[in-house]
Amino acid sequence: MTLDFSILFRFEHALLLGLWMTVKLTVICIVLGCSLGFLVGLARTSRNVALRAVSSIYVEFFRGTPVLIQLFWIFFCLPLLLGVELSNLASGVIALTLYMGAITSETFRASLKSIGPEQLDACVALGLPRNIQVVNVVLPQAVLRAIPTLLSNCVSLFKESALVSAVGMADLMFVGQNISNNTARPVEVLTVVALIYFVIAFPLTRAVSLIEARILKKLAI
Q1: Does 188 fall in a domain?
Q2: Which residues of 29-63 are buried (b: 16+ CB within 10 A; e: fewer)?
Q3: DSSP string, 1-21
Q4: Full domain range(s) for residue 91
Q5: Are 71 and 162 in contact (CB under 8 A)?
Q6: How far apart are CA 67 and CA 69, in angstroms?
Q7: Mean pLDDT of the 106-126 span
Q8: I need a surface site. Which of 16, 55, 137, 182 has the fewest CB within 10 A?
Q9: What is the sign, positive or negative, of the torsion defined by CA atoms of 55, 56, 61, 66?
Q10: CA atoms of 102 and 11, how far apart (whole Å)
Q11: Cβ of 72: how many Cβ atoms within 10 Å?
């Protein structure tokens, strides 16, 4: 078999559009998922037993089941229960956001527990309302401690986003599969698609290591 990667230049625009859709989906789900994860992390450290129980069930379910099954259930089953149609984009955003929220909640929970109780005691002594304590004292420190793991989660989500191609969303993987089917050149096409994911994900993983080292140094001071 003779390999011919030059054929991909004919589909350069389609691959770029697919990559743009992948990046856009990833960014949306990162923002929504991290916000949800912080709220769930707060719920899991709450003194309210019911709140802790509900948040724990949510986290364990979405961490303990395959993301692809979650995506399929939201795309195929949720519309039947709600009586509304969900686009593949909406289904992808919901599924990946819920998954991101579950995995980041554990990151936030660990970072919240690392904040010394004396700081919260000082807030109470000063008479600060709960919302002021969370926004001005807890949140900045929790985010700083959670940044390295959060960035790793973001890189993982970027790679997991390829699953949305299974519900027909025109991301990079979906475009690559279509080009592969139309050209009968799966080796060249899927190799290039894999390299695109790698070229984006690998520098991010290196950056995570550098940022983690700097944060640990800063916290040690």
Answers
A1: yes
A2: bbebbbebbbebbbbbbeeeeeeeeebeebbeebe
A3: ----GGGGGGGHHHHHHHHHH
A4: 6-220
A5: no
A6: 5
A7: 77
A8: 182
A9: positive
A10: 37
A11: 16
pLDDT (average), residues 71-76: 94
Overall number of domains in the chain: 1
Question: Tell me: the pLDDT tens digits for 18-48?
Answer: 999 999 999 999 999 999 998 999 899 888 8
Tokens of 47: 């003194």
- pLDDT tens-digit series, residues 149-170: 888 899 999 999 999 999 999 9
Q: What's the token pair of residue 13?
A: 């625009």
Is position 1 within any domain?
Answer: no
SS percent in the chain: helix, strand, coil, step 5: 85, 0, 15
CATH code of 172's domain = 1.10.3720.10
Average pLDDT over residues 46-72: 93
- Asked, for residue 168, whether it belongs to a domain, the answer is yes
- Tell me how far apart the 2 most distant CA atoms of the chain are, in Å: 75
